[in-house]
Amino acid sequence: MKNKIKKFSKGDFRTECPEIVFPETHIRMMIGEGEVYSGSFMIQNQKEGDIRGIVYPSSFRIQCSEQGFEGNPVKVNFTYDSAGLKPGQTEHGKFTVMCNGGEYDLTFTAMIEKPFIMTSYGKIQNVEDFKRLAMKDFSEARRLFRTRQFYDVLKYEELRIKNLYDNMRKWALDEEALEEFLVGIKQKEKIFLTLSDEERQLHDVLEEKKDWIEITKNTWGFVPIRIWADGAFIQIRDEEITTDDFVGDSYRLEYSIKEKKLHAGKNYGRIFIETPYEVLHVDVLVYQHISNSGAGREKELLEAQGLKEYLAYISGKLDRNEWVEKEIEKAKQLRDLEPENEYYLLIQAHIYLYGEKKEEARWILENFNYNRFAIGKKPEISAYYLFLTALLREDTSHTNRVLEELNRLYIKYPYSWQLLCMLVNLDPKYKSDSERFRMLERQFYNGTNHVLFYAEAYLCLKNQVILLRKLGDFEIQVLNFAIKYKLITRELAEYAAELISHQKDYDKRLYYILERLYKTYADQKVLNAICMQLIKGNQTGISCFKWYEKAVKQELKIAQLYEYYMMSIDGRRLRKALPRIVYLYFMHGNTLDEQKAAILYANILTYEDEQSEIYRHYQEEMETFAWDQLIKRQISEELRIIYNRFLVEEKMTPERLDALYDICHAYWVRVKKSGVKYVLVIEEDGSIRQRVAYSKKGAKIYLYDENARIVWEAKNGRHYTESIPYDARRMFYEIRFLEMCKKRMTDRTQKEQEKRSIPVTFENLRTYGIEAFDEQEVFLMCTKKIREEGQTEDDFLLYLAFEVMKRGYYDKALLTYLATFYCGATRDMKLVWKRAKEYEVETHALSERIISQMLFSEMLFSEEAIFQDYYEGNPYFRLKQAYLAYVAKEFVVHDRVTGQNVLAIIMKEYQEKEYLADICKVAVLKFYADRLPDHMEYEEILREFLREMCEKRLVFSFYLSYPESWLREVQLYDKVIVEYHAAPNSKVKIAYQINRGEMEKLDYQSESLLPMYDTVFAKEFILYKDETLRYYFKETRKDRKIVSEKMNVKLERDVCPVGKFGQLNAILDLNEEEKKRAMETYQQEEEIAGQIFQAY
To answer: Where's the DUF5717 domain (predicted)?
Structure first.
């Protein structure tokens, strides 16, 4: 180092800088627990010559056999002492190599090797090795997973991984558990299945048909798969499989279609493929040929239309004549479709009778083929014929005979509602609506369920609403019929509502009737009955709220109306103040549950003025409620409003702060997976203190630490972790409340840490490293030792002092110690210097070490302030001269940015008659070349430097920026200088041509150049005004050739017409006559000069 600095001080930079190469760019050390690792690394110079330097390791555990080195190549031997480090611990650091070829960082990683388990596929040391084993042989991985030896693999893994395995041992350790473990520790992705088809379509399956679907998995691993079908015609071959049954990544799912279970038309089915993570399905659609004719569908349509029009007739929407005409036409159409259908013929006759067209009806009945003993004929057809004849003849004796026959048939066929309807419409004893209604009711319980039957019953109620004395199944069905077909009258609707309101119990069917009644007749009686029914059934919820809200607005007098109004309200949709009557009602007693009370109180806080009577009445009640809910750790949007109003720091107790801390870390979690029964949380210490029942809406859990892990327990007892995607929403996050309980939680954490903490001693620091302790405590221990024993150098104390200083802990004593003894990487020493200057610590020796190291490695950066500080002390003359020369060289040769302070020091050194290398003077000339007008105080010095450098033939292009009088003195006033900066060890040629006027030569002259200084090449030319220099440079390097761009140069400055060059330049601007006279004068002066100045 001293020899290099000595050469630099004299301006000698001819020493070739080594080109450093590290064959190994990163050192990786695998060290057994408690062992001392021996290693080495190589440093090579790709050029010739030795490498000299020193190595600074970043870790106190590393000791180099020799810190300094010299040679080529160089082998640096070192040891690493792992005492105190546990398996699995890793240290990242660097060797800083400071040498004559620069300063380099060679990084290292020291890993304390973990225990391992030997398998048929090699040793397993960590979860990555275990994952590779599982990829190759899942069965062997499962066997290892079940053994207690597996703890050796996990012993030094992340705590979250170990905690998961600890708990999984309590649950299950089979293939599925292994899959979940690998997914949970992020060593593999979850298995997803994809299907080759989303839908399968088949046509006209005449016999059992086999088909298949391809299932593809996305990755390796194990997952059970359950397969089932929705559709009796689908039969699955294998209902339970696993991914072990896959061939490669795919599996052929085979199934068959059972033709005997197919019906005509479209047969819809679905095949489900279920894993613990997803349920996929394939729709199966089988088209079977339909043999139904279009005539059948047309017949059904006409019958339906006829029934609809009959209901319109009895409701009064159609008058009789219009209805008769329509039905006659439809009857004719039906007879055309089925001419042999006797039922259609009798219907036509019946319609004629309705329309008082007796002759048409008579003609049909007289031609009807009636035979009471006909085999296979339905009794309803014969009875229908007799019934119509009785209506047509209006003969009492005939009617009695018909009634006898109808009674006989009804006794024989008591389930025929058609026979009963004929009886009640023909027999005089059923002329009373009450009797008719009674008989119809009896028939209903025989299982009758037909529109025309209900129409008969409805007509009875329409005529006499008082027949609705009770609400049995029959009456409810009749009301449903009347409402469905919009037949019910207002009178019947009001009567029904009144009757329902007096029912003792809630009946969902009655509520359904009332709900539809209200759509037809929005009557207060109906609304009253609806609310009473709901209250009797203890019905709440959004669907009920609309009825309670209407009743509250209409101020109906219904017991418990306001309680059920509040119980049904949805706080999330409430965006307005509650009715004032609600506030007033609950002022006299509040029996609401906690959730609904919170809605009430939040609404008051939001919309009521604090000075109002209502607010003042509720205030104390609301505050008590707030503290009670806090202790119970309840959270909702309404409680957020209440908490923000009443929770103040002054009234906080330790118990309340604990509750507040809990709700600030509460989360609502939800999953899409079905079958989840519980949510578990594995805490940072591995325990499970939360096992919360999961509902369809989700579950509330508390997450205090980012290392906590959520586990989902399914109904079948399986446990899932990262494989189940979930949504987690923070339920309550208020900065104000977090700050409120922060101090208490900090105190609690500190106490827990103090219990587990290791005392800070130098011995423990050597064992566990500085990262294991509080940095401030380490700093206090270091500064105490320095104050007590600070005069002696201690390598470990120096290491600790620097590390805590780097982390921001230092004082004057510690900085003084570092400034006195610390040596290391240049960047690190500069950090020490900067911090030391802030505390006004003496840094002369430190500055000298930094400048020396930078010059030796030839890597200067941000050092001017350090040199200025060093220079203002008592600098070593050679180091001072070397620095100034090197900075000057970098400025001249490489245009390195140099501050004016450095140039001022050079000027000061010259004025004090100190030795300066020539390059320092050149640097001064370059710096002030375009700044001379602002620094005329240096005129004499600069002029002297210019004369001296020109005499030594150190001529650069920037000299031409100085005044002409100076240039005349050094004979540069008539020159043009071109300059080229090359790479080290390059050869440079210049190719040029001098063109006059517009003429341009075709060839270039070539000339080899010698360096003016270091890698700067320059050449001088004399140009007249009408001449142009065109040139380019050719640089030959070791590995390639470079040709610069072609440049043009002309004499731009004005030259005084003095001397030969000046006179000739001036003549160029004259006209022909003037040129002739000037040339004669020039010739005369040349002759006279020749006579006066004779050569000896």
So the answer is: 1-747, 794-1093
